[in-house]
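Usage

Read records sequentially. Each one opens with the input sequence:
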Amino acid sequence: MMSSVLSALLLGMPPLLATTPLDATVTLQEMRIAPPAEKLTIDRHLSASGVLVMDLQTGQPLFEEQADIARPMASLTKLMTALIIVEHHPMNEWVKIPEGIADTRGSVAYLPPGEHFTVGNLLSALLIASANDAAVALAQHHSGSTGAFVKEMNERAKVLGLRATSYANPTGLDDPRQWSPPRDLAWLATFVQRYPDISERMKKHGVTITSREGQALVLTHTHALVRDPTSSVIAGKTGTTDAAEQCLVSLVEEEDRKYVVVLEHSLARYTDMGVILKALIGRDIVPVLPEDNSALPAGH
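and closes with the structure output:
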C-alpha cells in the first residue's frame, strides 16, 4: 500500500495498486515500500503511437511514448462499462436482452432478443468476447438508456482522476467525443483489478454462457496473448476501430513483478507486445496472431 501512496506523491498520479478493500484504513506500520523497477530500454521501433509500460508495485513508468496524448480507445472503453456495472449489480441478477439489440454494430455475441442472461454472463461477453451487444444491454439495464449510462461513465472518470478521458458510448465505437491517453487507461486497468468479477474475466481464455431460456453462447478471449500460456500475459483487453487502429491492455506477470502495458493506435499490437515482452522478461515471444486490421470487427 505504501507503494501506491508513493505513486501519488512522487508521480502526481492516483494510487495504482491496492489489495485492501476500498474503504479500509491502513496504518503506517502496515505500509511497505517496494523496490523500484529498472527503466526499460526498447531499441526496436514500435508501431503504436501511444505506449505506457508501468510497474504495478510502485506505479513507476518504465517506458512511455506520448503517454499523455488522448486518442480513440476502441473497446478499452469497456473497462469503464464493466466498472460501473460491478459497482452496482450482483452477478446473479437477470437482464432481459432488448428487442433492438440486433441493430448493434461491430463485435457482438449475438445475444438473442427477449431472452434473459445474468449480469455475470453479460460481463463475460463484455470482457472476454468484447461484445458490443453486451455493453448496450448492460448500459440500458443499469440506466434505462445508453445516454444516461454515458453520463455516469464520465462522472466516474472524473472521480477516478481520469482528467484526459471522455466517453460517448459504452462500446468503444468511434465518436469524436470519445478518447483517452495511455496513462489514464493504465490507471483504469489497474484500478479495476480490485474487483474479482472483472479481473477474473480478463484472465479467462473462454467461457460458455447460457440464457435462462437455454440458449448457449461460446465466447473466446479476443486477446491472443492471454490465450498463450508462454507469454507471461495473464489478463488483458483488446480494442479495434478505424479511428483507434489496434489498442491493447495487457497485465504481465514475471516472477515477483507485475506490469501493465497499454498500446494505442498500433498497426501490429502483438508484434509490439513481443518487443516489449522481450525487454521486460528477457525472452522472445512469437506473436500468436498476425493481424489484418481490416478483418477485425469494429469495437473488437
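Summary fields computed downstream for this record:
- The domain at 2-295 is CATH 3.40.710.10 (Beta-lactamase).
- The chain has one domain: 2-295.
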